[in-house]
Amino acid sequence: MALERILDFIWPRRCEICGGLSDRPSRHVCAACLMKIPFMPATGCCSVCGLPVEGFDGTFVCEECAKSRKRRFDTAISAARMDGVFRRAVISYKFDGHLWMADDFADWMSAALSARTDPDAIDLVLSIPATLKHRIDRGYDQCAILAKRIASRIDRRFACGIVKRRGDPKRQSLLAGEEREENVKGTFAVARPELVRGRTILLVDDVMTSGATLSECAGELKDAGAWRVFALTLGRAI
Ligand SMILES: [Zn+2]
Ligand SMILES: [Zn+2]
User: Fold this and answer.
1) 75 C-alpha vs ligand 2 centroid, how far in Å?
2) The domain containing residue 8 runs over which residues?
């Protein structure tokens, strides 16, 4: 921490949003821009998909989740809505290598996790592995970087290589609702089922849109014996 403060003094950090100097030690979003982040509310969200529903409070399941019962994760939690300055920051992190944002993002995700659930209930932290194409094109796994930081914040183990991809699906953003589910079917395999059996897993992804990818991966973990799967994402497209 002391070293970070010295480095901050020598090379002052810039705010990712406004480009000005960051007034928050070791972080890349200044206090004023932090107010512009569209954080998800801690209450009034569906206990399954995490969508905020106006007029509701406490524990409830939204109409969509009650109707379809298709989601195989137990609960989904996101830090903020994919809007405005936040959306731009997430895209820069995911596609343009702005990896210095990882600590800011992990702070926000950990705060959302603590607000909506009990982190002590989690046994193991996993992440949705990046596609092979993403790793070749960009050279990093954006979700693993976040998952590792979150695991250290909640004092749990992060393990990579437990969830593997069987191949690269088409990009989900190019597809509509039901096509997304079809597209990710059979994408994931659990390489070490003995490590997930009977466990509560925190599954980290960058952005949740339809939830099809997280649901498919959670289903695979449950088929391998996981007891519960909590999904945690940085952004939520609404
Ligand atoms: Zn700023
Ligand atoms: Zn729901």
Assistant:
1) 9
2) 1-36
Angle between the N-to-C axes of helices 102-116 and 84-96, in degrees from 0 to 180, rounded to the nearest 10: 120
Give the closest ligand to the alpha carbon of residue 16: 1
Q: How far is the CA of 62 from the centre of ligand 2 (A)?
A: 4
Distance 28 CA to ligand 2 centre (A): 32
Segment 208-222 mean pLDDT: 95
Token match 């991966």: residue? 217
Quote the mean pLDDT of the chain: 92
Q: Are residues 17 and 64 in the same domain?
A: no
Question: Which of 36, 18, 38 lies closest to 28 in space, CA to CA?
Answer: 18
Interval between CA 89 and ligand 1 midpoint (Å): 12
Which domain CATH number covers 183?
3.40.50
